[in-house]
Amino acid sequence: MEKVIYDYEYAFKDNNNKDGAIIYCHGHNSKPEIFEMFQNYWTKTNYYALQFPGNNLVKPVKDHKLSVYQFAQLLINFIVDNGLKNVTLIGHSMGGGTISLAYKLRPDLIGKLIYIAPINKTTSLSKGKYKRNFEPKTLSEYHDFLRPLYYDFDALIANSEFSEEVKKAFDPERFSNPYIKELTMSMDASLYDEIESSLDSITVPTLLILGEKDGVIDSESCLKYFKEYVKNLESVIVPKSSHIIYLENWPVFIDAMDKFLNK
C-alpha cells in the first residue's frame, strides 16, 4: 500500500497508477466520503479525496487558516509531497473554488479540471433566491437546509428509510461550531474575484457538470459565466438532478465523466 502524506483524513484507492491521479475536493462542510460512488467505480488511476479543516467538525492543525485559499495550498502541497503529476482535479461546489485557486498556484501539476456545480460569482449564497440558513438548529430547519440540494426533496423525505437517515445525520454542532463559522465568513467577494482570475487563466481541458434544477447554484448563469472565462470548456447539464448531481442521476453523470477522462 502506497504511503500517503497529508495532515488530515483522506480517502484513497490504490489503482497502482499515480500518473494522471484523480483528487476530489469536497464542498462546504462536507467530507471525502460523499464521493464514494466514484471512488468505488474508478479503476484506471489512483484516486484520492481530501478532508479540509473547518469542515465536518475537523479542527485545524499547524496554524492552518480556515479558508478556500488555505485549502488550495493544502491541495498543492499534497500533490507535491506525494509525487503526483498530470493530476485531474475534481471540485464540487466550494471545492470548485479550491481547484481553481490551486490551478493558478501550480498549473504545471494539473492535467484536467472537473467542476461539479461549482461556487462562482454569478450565485450569491447570502441573498436573494439562493439565500440559505447555514445554521439549522432543528430537524425542520435541517430539512429546509437540505431541500435545495435535491431535485425532489419532498419525495425523498417521504421515504421512511431516507427520513431516518436524515434524522440520524442531523447534528446542530456541525453547523454552529466556530470552525465552520470562520470558514463561511471568509467566503467573501474578494474570494470570488480570485476565483474569476483563476478561471481566466485555465488552459487545460475542463469539464463543467451542472444539475437541471440546482437550488444552490444557478446552472444557467454558471454555464454562461464559465463559457465566458474558461477556454477549452466542455459542459453538461444533468437532467433530474440538483446540487448533489452524482447521487441523483449517476448514469448520465458517470457517462459524462468517462467520456472526458478517457480522452
Automatic annotation (TrEMBL):
The organism's place on the tree of life at top rank: Bacteria
SUPFAM superfamilies per record: alpha/beta-Hydrolases
GO cellular component: membrane
Domain Serine aminopeptidase S33 positions: 19-248
GO MF annotation list: carboxylic ester hydrolase activity
Protein family (similarity comment): Belongs to the lipase/esterase LIP3/BchO family.
Protein name: Alpha/beta hydrolase
Species, as recorded: Mycoplasmopsis bovis (Mycoplasma bovis)
